[in-house]
């Protein structure tokens, strides 16, 4: 027989280094000019994992291969009977080196269970009652986690970022990833979060995401899940990433309901916990084992809509339930990793095609599904660039991030029609949004880009066709901080000002958050002249603070003073006195909702003490270049000092 019919692995090199337990393989086997269906059996030289069998369709095959840490010898055995009278199978032996990235923060898999839960999920009548039980759900979530990992690793490699991928939190326990054995292995840990909330509270129609009687004043499922994680303790008592399944979700088919109670599809962050959640209403269609992956993604049984949810009208068959259940959940995990909605892919609604990643056949499709036909089943380039620098995706070969840059965000500086974006931690991505949709982006994956100059007219020309729509600009730094200009046109109009004596001047972006209802704005110039007051300069500042900046008092040479913020609380008070001709050339600040803390550097090389706390993101405010100078400060304050920025002009 022609040896060229033997299995050929296409998407990975022999002996390549990978970092995930389950490896997605795409290859060709058998005659490529003939229609046929066959099978490939995958065997492990170590015998630590059972052999598995995968489809071959018109010579194309995809399979999921279990790896042990270290060097793996994998045998791919093609069944030749469907296309040859010679019944001798063809064998390809392939090596893969698996090194887990144990130094990276993991994604934790968690299931929220009501206080008085029945510990079951909705399932079709055709399925065994055991498939509804918590132990089956744990196995399904574990399998889904490894599918997410295999998919993402393949995607990152296609984007040119190597075999980088997040890891799952694992433990040494009885493994469920195969239905042929239940050996002890290092496998994904499933945290069971016993909620203090009852089943009635979790299934409350007024907190269901799809409910027409939703009450936004009630604590929602996301907050309930967060509360459960915090009550659980470690590992959720520090910075962590969590994929959370709500076990007790239930499709209410009664005529006045017809929506899923106990379900929310949400992802993001709150404090140290980055969480993506999803309901269990589609989990009945998920595979529990690798051996079920193909059948679950190809099962064309129609669901009983009197019993099960047809979520978004896109889950009418079991295989589509599998797509959206696993894929839309991954979409929410993507949000927890920092991804916004993108023009295509998983972060749009590309998860409808998730089956195409793992199978070469699709119901009602007569052509093989090759990587080029996977359509929506991809991470968008913006997602991949984000993950390239994400702490969950770091490779040992990546240079360390200096501690001084861990929390530094970008600052924006205007100069005529130019916008300078500056971030000492390095800029990875700039995105442009119109009506909350990404309409363009610029990536910086090579080198160490700490400053970028953008031409505002060019941005408007490229993305501002609709004059009524604001262009939002979002900057991602390599340390995962995110800085935003909500409306570029408005920013340019408001931050270019004309001052008596000084002429045209500019304002930087302000640190902190504007609260127009409870604050008053201020602006102070270091040196100014007026007919009434003559020449006036800033002589000293007094800062009062505790964890935040309570107030700043500015004392001028004509004995006038300006105070911003409040003196009503106990706190530390410090003073900085300016010598004659001395002025501020740089401000280092920490900010979140308020100004947490800051210090100043002057043109005489002096630096003040640190005023305040160290919460929020770090920022550095200084002029765009040596041809400009800081001439004043602006901002706002109320109960605290809310915002702070610099005013500068060309020399």
UniProtKB/TrEMBL annotation:
GO CC terms of this entry: cytoplasm
Jacalin-type lectin domain mapped to chain residues: 505-650
Alphabetized Pfam families for the sequence: Jacalin (PF01419), Metallopep (PF12044)
Descriptive protein name: Putative zinc metalloproteinase
Organism of this sequence: Rhizophagus clarus
């Amino acid at each position: 027989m022609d040896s060229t019919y033997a299995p050929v692995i296409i998407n990975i090199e022999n002996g390549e280094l990978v970092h995930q337990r389950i490896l997605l393989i795409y290859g060709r086997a058998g005659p490529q000019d003939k229609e046929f269906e066959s099978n490939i059996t995958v065997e492990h030289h170590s015998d630590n994992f059972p052999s598995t069998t995968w489809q071959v369709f018109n010579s194309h095959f995809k399979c999921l291969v279990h790896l042990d840490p270290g060097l793996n010898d994998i045998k791919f055995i093609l069944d030749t009977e469907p296309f040859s009278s010679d019944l001798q199978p063809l064998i390809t032996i392939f090596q893969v080196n698996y090194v887990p990235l144990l130094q990276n923060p993991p994604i934790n898999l968690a299931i929220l269970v009501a206080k008085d839960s029945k510990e079951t999920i909705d399932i079709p009548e055709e399925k065994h009652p055991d498939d509804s039980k918590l132990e089956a759900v744990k196995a399904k979530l574990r399998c889904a986690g490894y599918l997410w990992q295999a998919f993402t690793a393949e995607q990152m490699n296609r984007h040119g970022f190597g075999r980088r991928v997040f890891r799952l939190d694992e433990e040494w326990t009885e493994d469920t990833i195969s239905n042929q054995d239940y050996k002890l292995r290092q496998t994904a840990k499933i945290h069971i979060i016993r909620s203090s909330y009852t089943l009635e509270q979790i299934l409350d129609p007024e907190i269901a995401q799809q409910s027409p009687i939703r009450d936004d004043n009630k604590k929602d499922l996301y907050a309930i899940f967060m509360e459960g994680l915090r009550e659980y303790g470690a590992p959720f008592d520090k910075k962590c990433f969590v994929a959370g399944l709500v076990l007790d979700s239930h499709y209410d088919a009664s005529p006045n309901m017809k929506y899923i109670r106990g379900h929310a599809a949400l992802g993001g962050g709150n404090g140290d916990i980055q969480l993506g959640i999803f309901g269990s209403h589609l989990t009945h269609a998920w595979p529990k084992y690798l051996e079920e992956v193909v059948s679950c993604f190809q099962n064309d049984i129609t669901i009983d809509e009197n019993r099960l949810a047809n979520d978004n009208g896109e889950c009418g068959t079991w295989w589509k339930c599998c797509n959206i259940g696993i894929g839309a959940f991954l979409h929410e995990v993507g949000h927890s990793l920092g991804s916004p909605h993108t023009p295509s892919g998983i972060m749009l609604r590309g998860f409808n095609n998730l089956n195409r990643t793992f199978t070469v056949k699709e119901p009602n499709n007569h052509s093989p599904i090759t990587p080029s036909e996977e359509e929506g089943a991809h991470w968008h380039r913006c997602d991949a660039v984000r993950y390239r620098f994400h702490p969950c995706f770091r490779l040992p070969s990546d240079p360390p991030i200096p501690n001084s840059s861990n929390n530094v965000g970008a600052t924006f500086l205007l100069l005529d029609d130019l916008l300078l974006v500056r971030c000492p931690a390095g800029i990875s991505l700039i995105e442009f949004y119109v009506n909350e949709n990404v309409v363009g982006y610029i990536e910086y994956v090579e080198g160490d880009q700490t400053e970028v100059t953008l031409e505002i007219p060019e941005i408007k020309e490229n993305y501002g066709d609709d004059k009524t729509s604001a262009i939002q600009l979002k900057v991602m730094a390599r340390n995962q901080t995110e800085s935003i200009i909500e409306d570029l046109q408005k920013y340019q109009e408001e931050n270019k000002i004309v001052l008596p004596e000084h002429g045209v001047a500019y304002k930087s972006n302000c640190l902190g958050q504007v609260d127009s209802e409870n604050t008053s704005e201020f602006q102070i110039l270091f040196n100014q002249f007026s007919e009434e007051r003559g020449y006036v300069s800033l002589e000293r500042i007094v800062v009062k603070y505790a964890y935040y900046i309570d107030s700043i008092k500015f004392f001028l040479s004509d004995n006038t003073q300006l105070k911003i913020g409040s003196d009503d609380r106990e706190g530390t008070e410090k003073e900085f006195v300016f010598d004659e001709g001395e002025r501020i050339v740089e401000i280092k600040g920490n900010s979140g909702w308020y100004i947490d803390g800051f210090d100043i550097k002057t043109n005489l090389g002096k630096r003040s003490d640190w005023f305040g706390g160290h919460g929020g993101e770090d920022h550095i405010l200084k002029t765009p270049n040596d041809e400009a100078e800081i001439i004043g400060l602006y901002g706002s304050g109320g109960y605290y000092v809310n915002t702070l920025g610099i005013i500068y002009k060309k020399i």
